[in-house]
Structures are given as structure tokens and as C-alpha cells.
TrEMBL record:
Entry keyword Membrane: yes
SUPFAM superfamilies: ABC transporter involved in vitamin B12 uptake, BtuC (SSF81345)
CDD domains: TM_ABC_iron-siderophores_like
Pfam families registered for this protein in UniProt: FecCD
Organism annotation: Cellulomonas chitinilytica
Family named by the database record: Belongs to the binding-protein-dependent transport system permease family. FecCD subfamily.
Location within or outside the cell: Cell membrane
This protein's name: Iron ABC transporter permease
MF terms in GO: transmembrane transporter activity
Example GO biological process: siderophore-iron import into cell
């Protein structure tokens, strides 16, 4: 009696399944890291609070000192999660959109547009109005639209044209910011408080104001994961696969701009997060945006909250702004990763 042999799956299929399983487990690990970063962000500050007390005060607020401290740190932590996810995911999309390994949220002129909008609003409506989130969002969106229009010029907006247009528009907007700031010192004071990049001292309700933009942008990026994979092959290959490259590039630029605008409007320009996190994640996930995007959404806040905690500890009882700490903490790590060949450029 003969026994039939069961055919084995091809080795490449088994390897892909094993890799997907490892990446799924790693995604759970990234979620655990994020929870730990959130706990540290609430517990660490000028007055450290034990993690056990943080949990008790969060579940049963009783008006005590510890409960008040925890309640005051929760909005800052929520803001860090939203902004970190927005910057990291926007960095992935911009790098894929422009096929530029140095792509970051400032490449499309978003940072310069937000800064110009803050300065103009402060000059026209008063310094207090310049501190509102809504003072920065319109400028960021208009700058990105201007970059796209200049970069297309009636033709197809190629990655090189977008980068060059972003540099040109940013230069004009930076000159505008400097001109207004030098003419009106009170405007410069308001702008200085925003441009350093910080999670601290933001107006109440900032989280609620930017949350819809961030959620909408993240959902849009998830829906664009497969088209971005096809776009990475080049316009001709993407078109042969049935993809409308121009429409995909426009939609990708739109969702990245929404994420950048919300993050920059809330906390000011925070460097490095949108540049470094995608590179580090790409070193172990590869270039598949279906894995890149969720990993960056989890690890972006880990980097930002970690930098914020470091800024509180090293300058206690004061603190360093998170925009400065991200460069000091993250830049050496990225340089070391590149030197060891662990970052895919």
C-alpha cells in the first residue's frame, strides 16, 4: 500500500510567513515600548511619582498632590503620542513620495509655512493669537499647496521638482518670518516661544484640536500603503500595475501635509523624528509600507516621549525643550546605525 507524499510549501513562501510572524511579534513589542514610554512620561518630572501611584491616581483621582501632578502630565503625554506618530508616519510618506532618504516633514515647506503663519497672525491679531494651533495650520497647508503647484508647473510633479520647489518656497517664507520678526519685537517673543519645539506649556485643548487631523492623516496613510509600495518601483512600473501615479503622489502629499501641519502647529518644528525613525524601522522591516507605517506610528511617540523625559531629568528642576533633545539623543544613534550598515538608505 503506497503512501502519498504531501507536497511541502516552497521555501520562499515559508520564509515570508516566518518573517511576517516575526514582524507581528515585533509590532507587539513596539506597543509595549510605547506603553512604557507613556508611563515614564507621566511618572518622571520635577517631582517623580512612583508608577504604582500613577496607576492609582489615574484610576481613582482624589484631588491629592499626586493626583494633581498626574492629571497635569496626561495631556502633555497625549500630545507627545499624537505628535510623535504624526511626524514619524509623515516622514515615511515623504521619503517614499520623493524617493529621498533625507526626506522629512520640512521638505515640503510645511515647517516654514507654519512659522510664517504664526508670525503673520501674531503681527495682525496680537501675540496671544499667534500661540493658537489654528494660527499655524493654514500656513502649513498653503505652503504645501504652493510647493506642489510650483513643483508641477503644469507638468507631472516629479520627486526632484517637489524637493526643489520646497527649498524655494521655504526660503521665501523664512525671509518673511525674519522681516516681520525684526520689525516687531513683540511678534518675535511670541514666535520664539513656539519655534523651539516643545510639548510643555501648550494651551488647554490642543490635543482635542489636532486629534482629528492626526487620526484622519494616519487612516489615509494606511490606505495608501500598497500604492506607495507600487510608487517606489517608479512611475512607469506603477502605471503598468494599474496605479495612477499622479493621483497617488497628490494624495500622499496631502495626508503627509495634514500630519505635519497638525504636529508643527501644536508643538512647533521638532527635528529628527520624521527623519530618523523611518530609517531605523526600515533597517528591520524593509521597504514595505504595510509594516513601515504601523511600526513608525508606535516608535515615533517612543522617541519623542523618551526625549521629553530626558529633557526633564538632565535639567531638573527646569527642563530642556524636546526639540533640542531629539537632536542630541537621536543624531548619534542614527550616525552609529549608518556606520554599522543597519540603516537602509
Amino acid at each position: 500500500m503506497s503512501t502519498a507524499t504531501i507536497p511541502r510549501a516552497p521555501r520562499t513562501v515559508r520564509a515570508r510567513g516566518s518573517r511576517a510572524s516575526l514582524l507581528a511579534v515585533g509590532l507587539l513589542g513596539a506597543a509595549v515600548l510605547l506603553l512604557l514610554a507613556v508611563a515614564l512620561s507621566i511618572a518622571v518630572g520635577a517631582k517623580p511619582v512612583p508608577l504604582g501611584d500613577v496607576w492609582s491616581a489615574w484610576r481613582h483621582p482624589d484631588g491629592s498632590y499626586v493626583s494633581t501632578v498626574v492629571a497635569s502630565r496626561v495631556p502633555r503625554t497625549q500630545l507627545g503620542v499624537l505628535v510623535g506618530a504624526a511626524l514619524a508616519v509623515a516622514g515615511v510618506v515623504i521619503q517614499g513620495l520623493t524617493r529621498n532618504p533625507l526626506g522629512d516633514p520640512g521638505l515640503l515647506g510645511v515647517n516654514a509655512g507654519a512659522a510664517a503663519s504664526v508670525v503673520v497672525v501674531a503681527a495682525v491679531a496680537g501675540a496671544g493669537a499667534g500661540r493658537s494651533v489654528w494660527a499655524a495650520i493654514p500656513g502649513a497647508l498653503l505652503a504645501a499647496v504652493a510647493v506642489y503647484l510650483v513643483g508641477s508647473g503644469g507638468r507631472r510633479a516629479t520627486p526632484v521638482r517637489l524637493v526643489l520647489a520646497g527649498a524655494a518656497v521655504s526660503a521665501v517664507l523664512v525671509a518673511l518670518v525674519e522681516a516681520i520678526s525684526l520689525a516687531k519685537p513683540e511678534v518675535f517673543d511670541s514666535y520664539r516661544a513656539w519655534v523651539v519645539g516643545s510639548l510643555a506649556g501648550r494651551p488647554p485643548g490642543t490635543v482635542g484640536e489636532i486629534a482629528p487631523f492626526v487620526v484622519a492623516g494616519l487612516v489615509g496613510c494606511v490606505l495608501l500603503a500598497r500604492p506607495l509600495n507600487a510608487l517606489a518601483l517608479g512611475d512607469e512600473a506603477a502605471t503598468s500595475l494599474g496605479l495612477r501615479a499622479g493621483r497617488t503622489r497628490l494624495l500622499s502629499a496631502a495626508v503627509a501635509t495634514i500630519l505635519c501641519a497638525a504636529a508643527v502647529a501644536a508643538c512647533g518644528p521638532i527635528a529628527f523624528v520624521g527623519l530618523a525613525v523611518p530609517h531605523v524601522v526600515r533597517s528591520f522591516t524593509g521597504s514595505d509600507h504595510r509594516w513601515l507605517l504601523p511600526y513608525c506610528a508606535l516608535l515615533g511617540p517612543v522617541l519623542l516621549l523618551g526625549a521629553d523625559v530626558v529633557g526633564r531629568v538632565v535639567a531638573r528642576p527646569g527642563e530642556l525643550m524636546v526639540g533640542a533633545v531629539t537632536a542630541f539623543v537621536g543624531a548619534p544613534f542614527l550616525v552609529a546605525a549608518v556606520r554599522r550598515g543597519r540603516v537602509a538608505l
